Amino acid sequence: MSPHSKSLAVRCFELFWRLYPPALRAQHPEASSLFLELERRERRRRGRVGAWLLLVRTVLDLLRHAPTAHRLESRFLRSMRSPVHRAGHRGLAMTTLRHDLVLAARLLTKQPLFTAIAALTLALGLGANTAIFSVVYGVLLRPLGVDDPDTLTYVTLHRESDRNDSTGFYPPHLEDVRERLAGDGAGAREILGTTAFLFEAATLMQDGAAIEIGSVLHTDGDFFRVVGYEPLLGRGLVPGDVEGPGTGNVAVIDETFWRDRFGGDPGVVGRTIILDERPVTIVGVLPAHVPIPERDHRLWMPRGFDGDPTLIGRVNLLARFDAGAGLVASEAALRRAIADVEPDHPRYDGYTVSLQTLREAMVGEVRPALLLSAGAVALILLIACANMANLLLARASARDREMATRRAIGARVPQLLHQLLVESLLLSLLGGALSIALALGLHRLLVALAPAGLPRVDAIRLDLPVLGFAAAITIVTGVLFGLAPVAHVLGLDLARRTSAAPRAGRRPGARLRSALVVVQVTVAVALLVTAVLMIRSLREASAVEPGFDGERIGGARVYLDSDAYPDDAEELAYFQQLLEGLAGRPDVEAAGATSGLPMDPQTIDYDLPYTLPGRVSEEEAAQAYVRTVSPGYFETMRIPLLEGRTFDSRDRPDTGRVAIVNRSFARLAWADASPVGESFSIYGGRRTLRVVGVVGDVRFSALTSPYKAEFYVPMAQMTYGAMNVVARGPDADLAARAIAEEALAVDPSQPVHSSFALTRLTADSIATNRFLAVLLTAFAAVALALAMAGIYGVLSQWVGESARELGVRVALGSSRSGIVGLVLRRSMLLGAVGIMLGLLGTQAIGTLIQRFLFGVRSSDPLSLIATAALIAITGLAASLRPALRAAQRPPMETLRAE
Amino acid sequence: MRDPLKPADLHVLLALASGALHGYALVQRIEEESDGRIRMLPGNLYAVLRRLELDGLLCPARKAPRPDEDQRRRYYELTDEGRRTLEDEARRMSALSERVRAVLGSESG
Asked: Contacts of residue B50 in chain A, CB cutoff 8 Å?
């Protein structure tokens, strides 16, 4: 908080502090600095969210004790025998409030239809907002469960030229960087601590059989100190747990593991589990919901990191920086350290680091989509509010006579306004209560619909902060739409005082009502356009050819334990045996294995610099993604062979190094010439690969991602212990099961890590697009319905009020179709203004929407015209009934009624 | 004897028993003495201070803020009446606890 300007929190405090009697406030000029000190302390202890909660509690506390303070002050004044007598003031206020509440409740029960429509409209708006807020709060705002999360950062090692071109650390390099950071005197004071970690799969054994495979976080022992976890039981890991290179013999487990495997036994510390055939002692239990960084790991183990080459590019780094120094200075310090050690680590030449707070690293990617949803749902509430205002205005006009009578018998304007506000608040509370039930249902639906890969899903709950939000918007909404009838009564009062009798058809409030309908149509257009764009974008994305045929392909991730399979030859033998087993099964059409599977969020996607003979290495297209594949992989995936051959048994560890390139690689490197027979080098020229074939491009990370330059090398010549095995069978599930069975047949100690259906992965890759399309379509439908109800209501009201005018017109010979036309023209005018404003508004936020779109522009004329037409048609439909009613009324009846 | 003190009043008086304090220090002292269970927020604090002042149990102290402190700070101290009330309360509570112990003791015995 800046000491120079008053923070929002202090301003807020001062606002509510004004509720206290002036004498008491004068006695305590230091009140806001006391609050400021409390707030700072809370911020230090519990972070930003804690500070905000303190503000909320403080405001509630002020509200609660302000009446006491006033009572005390009046007692004091009385004790001074002051002539000022204030006792009973509050009592009077209470009586009025109770009286108004009774009156309002009676009114609402007397008009059950009106009350039901109003409450449902509000419940819809409020419930949808609460449900979306539960997601926004859970994912973006809920505390992470670590100390001061704003100074804990995730360190990304990436090329200076491209932030997205990142890799992991390699322990010897990292060791030098950390030494440089800690260095005596010359060290970086900005960085308070760092910790290295990586994820490994491990097999939990019981009675000699594998019972579970899960992800384990391996760390250097500083993790718990740097992150600041509080264990539920026992202790966290400490540097002393690391005993030389490799994994230590202790582990911290999380609460869910503790409950699943030990039934929550409080004596779990000190007990032993068998992990990858080794006994491991449990030293502590962490609370659930803090698997940070986001990964579904349930175990933490110490590990000594050494120069093991399999660790190249795999180690992650967290850094805790000094809040006083700030993120930017800390990043600069870390960058200096990286630059300093560069001469000793040529591999990282041209690399630098960026710091991201942990929260940003975890949820930064989904934030825009969530905020878009929140914005859209807030618009729904706006429409609901406008509808309510319209309903109340219509009713207020009908109550003009009542109000006038009450004025005549001596009610003062403030009393009338008080009662109107009490009525609208009572209505909004009714809607708010209903909305909670609705929000509960929607919240479940949202969690079920949440796109794959949405972080922190387990933090999405409908709990106190979310209900607090619901209460706040309920009250704000009630006041907001309650202002409409207030304005109406004030207008009446003004009219009465200036004795300007309202003319027919120009009643006060009529213009406001029309304006509200225009707002509704505007917002509905904006939402509908966005929804239509999202749907078209989803269709475009779904229609993209991925470059392979995923139908009936099941797959499994097989991560071989490096202790059981220490070298390439054994790993290769395992996978060859597994694929042979699969080939022999009648229920498997084709099978293959790859290190990098398209659409798999868990796959490792990495690129290498390459050089072409006779050309300089700085040339463009110096990077290409590498995948290791087995013979049969292209055939299984039906990735088309364009030229040359695919891999087969001719490609062995001892034969010439070969590669297959994709079409993008071929175009970039050899333009129109045929690459078959050409060669290129990797590993700084130490390995040369001869191209034997060209295959088609595939979409790799998602259907919406562009093609990349890729090359494939045979599994026999570049072997990995972690592969994705795919098989085409009668259906994806049976194929996946076949792989799991064969894997157990080859080696019962190495069960498959996880299984999947390839079409499922492909669909998940555009899950966010789908989620937004579904959500916004639902929102747009609600918005459209509410806006149409608005048009219908306003026109009906107008027809009712203009009965005399219309009757005269009919009496003067106007035809029925003329009357219908008159009413429709009015609705068209409102609709047209709303549509224009809505289309303009959509273009204004076009760039905002564009980032969520694929293959369609936010200014897409077809979408805009279709939306405008849809709104116009539904608008006309909504106007038809009032128009026909106006035309069918016998003129004499109307005139007689006057 | 007067009615039992409200918990908030008791804690404020207790905190002031060892010397004059200003608002923020009072909040901290009360938190420490109650092991963090009682957190007084400004709204409640100033209302309680005012009530105790009107009841004559405490009064603004003559102690001036230190030069390095916020000069607007007001220190409070116990009046003689306040100290007596606190002592009465202590007696009342120990009498009560003895009675409870006697009743429970006779039951179990």
From this structure: 24, 27, 69, 72-73
* Contacts with A33 from chain B: Cβ below 8 Å: 70, 72
- Residues contacting residue A689 through CB under 8 Å, at least 6 positions apart: A657, A658, A659, A679, A680, A681, A682, A711, A713
Q: Is B47 on the interface with A (CB under 8 A)?
A: yes
> Is A65 close to B47, i.e. CB distance below 8 A?
yes
Partners of A27 on chain B (C-beta within 8 Å) are 50, 74
> Of B24, B43, B74, which has the smallest distance from its Cβ to A64's Cβ?
B43
Short-list A884, A777, A791, A886, CA closest to A832: A791
Contact A732, A757 (CB under 8 A): yes
Whether residues A64 and B23 touch (CB distance < 8 A) is answered with no
Range ranked top by mean pLDDT from A446-455, A459-468, A487-496, A625-634: A625-634
Confidence of residue A508 (pLDDT cuts 50, 70, 90): low
Question: pLDDT at residue A711 above 90?
Answer: yes
Vertex B57, ends B52 and B61: CA angle to 5°? Answer: 95
- What's chain A's Rg over C-alpha atoms? 35
* Lowest model confidence (mean pLDDT) among A517-521, A683-687, A703-707, B6-10: A683-687
pLDDT per position as a tens digit, A245-266 = 878 889 999 888 898 888 888 8
| A37, A38, A65: residue with CB nearest B44 | A65
**A31, B46: Cβ pair inside 8 Å?**
yes
* A541-559: pLDDT as tens digits: 888 889 999 999 999 988 8
Task: Name the minimum distance, in Å, from the CA of B107 to any CA of chain A.
Answer: 35
The answer to whether the CB of B38 falls within 8 A of the CB of B8 is yes
- What is the percentage of chain A residues whose pLDDT exceeds 90? 20
- Chain A interface, best mutation among B22, B24, B26, by max A CB count within 10 A: B24
What is the rounded distance in angstroms from the CA atom of residue A799 to the CA atom of residue A793?
A: 10
Six-digit token string for A125 = 């708006």
Interface contact flag, A72 B24, Cβ < 8 Å? no
A316-321 vs A152-159, strand pairing mode: antiparallel
pLDDT digits (tens, 9 = 90+) for A306-348: 877 667 777 889 999 888 888 888 899 889 888 888 888 877 8
